[in-house]
Amino acid sequence: MPPVLVDSTLLADNLERIAEEIDEGFDRLLPIPQDARARLVEAMRYAAIGGGKRLRPLLLVATAEMHGTNRVTALRAAVAIESIHVYSLVHDDLPCMDDDEMRHGKQTLHRAFDEATAVLAGDSLHALAFEILANPETIGDPFVRAELLRVLGTAAGMNGMAGGQMMDIIAESETFDLGTVTRLQQLKTGALLAAAVEMGAILGHAPPESRTQLRAYARDLGLAFQIADDLLDHEGDEEAAGKALRKDAAAGKATFVSLLGPERARTQAQALVEQAIAHLAAHGQEADLLRAIARYVVERNH
Amino acid sequence: MPPVLVDSTLLADNLERIAEEIDEGFDRLLPIPQDARARLVEAMRYAAIGGGKRLRPLLLVATAEMHGTNRVTALRAAVAIESIHVYSLVHDDLPCMDDDEMRHGKQTLHRAFDEATAVLAGDSLHALAFEILANPETIGDPFVRAELLRVLGTAAGMNGMAGGQMMDIIAESETFDLGTVTRLQQLKTGALLAAAVEMGAILGHAPPESRTQLRAYARDLGLAFQIADDLLDHEGDEEAAGKALRKDAAAGKATFVSLLGPERARTQAQALVEQAIAHLAAHGQEADLLRAIARYVVERNH
């Protein structure tokens, strides 16, 4: 069997499996209360269940399992990081931010519910991530718990995702060069993708040299992911994406594609994926899933 | 010297001191970065520095010091809980929520900056709280760190503050009875006030029986605080408050004052304060500050 086929079967199975597991995780964590908070939890469920590639959870679980962590524990942390990702999408879609109407092929949360509920559901998903990780039932070892919280908190805040989102807003009115766009994307999406790998490594008690390699893998993967995103935004299919495309160009925002052109952008994304995979050279078969994920981020059609 | 005078001097000194310390804490944590995130951090500083009673930090530090925790450590956790409080005010003031123009005597954040920046600054202050607590430099013991994170995460999320805020939004369109309003307020403001005391007790390694008493103190204090807030909203001075008042009545929202009438509300707030203080009976002079805080929450004019 040629290696590409092995990869894609391995990946497809894992994407399907993690999607179910994350849906189950949110379902279990979000029972609808018998009081006026019902609407809030319904909104959280609407945003969190049944959509998205679950790339961050997959990266976290793949890294943790590669180091021998049991899947049940890894999945709890995976739901936490996905909760941060979902909250960020809910807030990014708000009218005062990107003002998006569609997400994952359905109405955005503020359209399906209302803006106030979307702000609060985002805030509650944000808090939920930390509630999960701080719960002794999630992870018994308090040191591991505190480390996971540190990594996720840093990746989510002003020195990570939220800081990148601010730069992204400013990108509409200023002309960013390639260095600034790279920095923006490292914060906006790279920080959380890197946190997924880092959290898996923490759970798996990965040795320091392995951590360094995994960090390098995650950095290259994050950048490749964003270049691929820009390419999909430039030439992708709105139906497959489940959201509006080509908004960056309309807003005059600098992206990898606008700065490099589609050809060079594609070449660079591919080079980054090869580089990401090269960082896993010390590992055998147990890293095949991480390799397959790296290929997937540039080959996906949504 | 009569005890009331002792109390008020003790309290005034402590309110002044904690206000300075929290401002310093935020100032140190929020240096303005040399990139496009500058606007985000400026917005966070605008919201976090130089305003508010700092009641949650004071409760936390008073409880921690009462149990022998050093003030520097307690202050770090105090900045974290205030960061949650400030983020909640920023989001509550948004046009899609309470649509407020003034806060702490100055323009609300979305008016001074813009809505997108206010959403992101709130999100970043939310994450900052967890970043602070998860940092090993804040608290060395990982078990204490994880416990603080657990308590704060729960108090902030759907089973605490954010859940209460959702109920508060629904209160505008439904007619809540006294039990529901009590539950709403226990979540919306009570949860975080209780978390402040609980976090102080965790830092101070307070024994279980002491924790139970402190929890009871915090519960009564939280309710007294909210009744006093409703009374201030009903008959207070907008200038002293630094924000618009009487919005609840205009929105037809049920409050303690609308349900009980101002006289009964006042009597009940006073009774709750006495009850809160009674829970501290096992403690001597070292609990004087907590007693003074309890009196303050119903005697304040803003």
Structure description:
2 copies of one chain form a homodimer. With 302 residues, chain A is mostly helical. Chain A has a single domain, classed as Farnesyl Diphosphate Synthase, CATH 1.10.600. The first copy, chain A, has 15 helices and 2 strands. Chain A has a two-stranded antiparallel sheet with strand order 1-2. The first copy, chain A, starts with a helix and ends with a helix.
| Biggest interface | A-B, 58 and 59 residues
Radius of gyration of chain A: 19 Å
Low-confidence stretches of chain A: 1-5
Second-tier CATH architecture of chain A: Orthogonal Bundle
User: What is the assigned CATH homologous superfamily of chain A?
Assistant: Farnesyl Diphosphate Synthase
Task: Give a brief description.
2 copies of one chain form a homodimer. Chain A is mainly alpha-helical. The first copy, chain A, has helices at residues 3-29, 38-48, 55-66, 71-92, 109-112, 115-134, 142-156, 161-170, 178-203, 208-235, 238-241, 247-250, 256-260, 262-278, 288-299; strands spanning 102-103, 106-107.
Secondary structure: elements and pairs:
The structure is a homodimer of 302-residue chains.
Chain A (H helix, E strand, L loop, with lengths): L2 H27 L8 H11 L6 H12 L4 H22 L9 E2 L2 E2 L1 H4 L2 H20 L7 H15 L4 H10 L7 H26 L4 H28 L2 H4 L5 H4 L5 H5 L1 H17 L9 H12 L3
Antiparallel strand pairs in A: 1-2
Helix pairs in contact in A: 1-4, 1-15, 2-6, 3-4, 3-9, 4-6, 4-9, 7-9, 8-9, 9-10, 10-14, 10-15, 14-15
